[in-house]
Amino acid sequence: MSSLSPFSEAADRLLDALEKALEALANNHDLDWQRSNSVLTLDVGNRQWIINMHAPREELWFAGSGGAHHFQRDLHGIWRDTRSNEPFATVLTEALRSVGISEKPELPE
Question: For 31, 63, 97, 99, which has the most beta carbons within 10 A of its beta carbon?
Answer without folding.
Answer: 31
